[in-house]
Design goal:
Elements (H helix, E strand, L loop, with lengths): L3 H23 L2 H22 L5 H23 L2 H26 L1
């Protein structure tokens, strides 16, 4: 589980699955669009990391920034469990992929 590509794939499944679940429960098109888009960014980042191609970490970090940008303000405003959970997922991604990106830039 320490492999960054595995973590990116896990986050892809969580976000895409959450978007699909949100659509199935409420019929929310924005939920499925956002969830699948962020999930695709995580999956593409994980795939590029696994194949040792450039910009894998950056794509996963971008997905985390997008997820945090949409979920953190809602979590603060509503204090509901779903936005809080998404914010935790985003914070994990920001920390994990931000640390990897920073270590590559500094080194």
């Amino acid at each position: 589980m320490d492999e960054p590509s595995t973590q990116a794939f896990l986050l892809a499944c969580l976000t895409a699955g959450g978007g699909i679940t949100g659509y199935a429960r409420t019929g929310s098109v924005p939920s499925i669009a956002a969830g699948v888009t962020v999930g695709a960014l995580y999956a593409l980042g994980g795939l590029r990391q696994r194949n040792r191609q450039p910009y894998g970490v950056e794509l996963a970090l971008l997905a985390s920034v997008v997820l945090a940008g949409s979920s953190v303000p809602r979590a603060i405003k509503t204090m509901k469990p779903l936005p809080i959970g998404l914010s935790v997922v985003a914070a994990f991604g920001l920390y994990r992929f931000g640390t990897l990106w920073n270590s590559r830039v500094v080194a």
